[in-house]
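Ticket #4471: structure export looks truncated?
Reporter: QA, pipeline team
Priority: medium

Steps to reproduce: submit the single chain below to the structure queue and open the exported record.
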Amino acid sequence: MKYIFTSLFLVLILFACGEQENKPHNKTVPTIQQPAEEEKDFSYREFQPDTVSGISLKGFDIEASYQINSLYFLTGYYEYPDGEMVYPNTETDFGDRLLVLDKQHKLRFQSKGAGDVYLFDPHFYKNAQNDKIYIVCQAAFEYYCGGDVFLVENQKIKHLGTIDISGKDMETNLIDILQIHENSKETIFSFKADSVIFNPGGEKEDLIKNTNLHYRYDGKRLEFVE
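Actual output as written to the record:
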C-alpha cells in the first residue's frame, strides 16, 4: 500500500513538471528609450559674446573684438600708410571688414571691405539646437542700410551675402526688425514690420509692404523672396 502511494505521488510530480514545461514563457522585453529627435523648426536669438582686448594685427585698426570659443572676431579697417592705398586694400575692396583669428591669432578669414560706410557693427545670433552662429554686420552711411551676413559653423566662416533691407524710417535699422528662423530645409531671415525699405540709398530703393518678405538660405545661396 505504501508502495502504491509513493508511485502515485511520483506520477503526480512528473505530470506537474511536464505541464510547467509546456506552458509558453512570456519573456519581458526591455523598453528601449529612443533618443529625443532634434527639433527641425526653431529660432535664433541675439547674444553678446565676450569682448577681448590686447589683440593686434599689423596694419589693421581694430574697432571691436570678440571671442567665441577659440575664435576671435574683429571689425576694423586696414590703415593707409602716408595716405596711400596699399594691399590688401584695392579700389574695389577697402573699408571696414570682419576678420576672424584662431587661438594662435593667425588670420582664418577676412571679408571684403564694406567701402565708405560710417558704421559696420556686428551682431551675433545663436540657437539652442546646434552650434551654428549667424553674424549680421549692420552698415550705415548718413542713413541705415542693410547688413552683410556670415555663417560660423564647425569653426569655419562663410560670407553668405547682403540683406538689403532697413526699417521704414530713419530711426529703425535692420537689426531692430530682424528675425532668424530655421527649419529642416532652410534658414529664414524675416522682418517684424508692416513695411520695409528695400535697397536703402540705392538705385532700386523702394518702400514696400511686408507681405511675408524674407531672405532664405538653403545651404547654397542667400536670396530675397517677395
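Status: closed, not a bug. The export was complete when the record was re-opened. Leaving a note from the reviewer for reference: The chain has one domain: 42-225.
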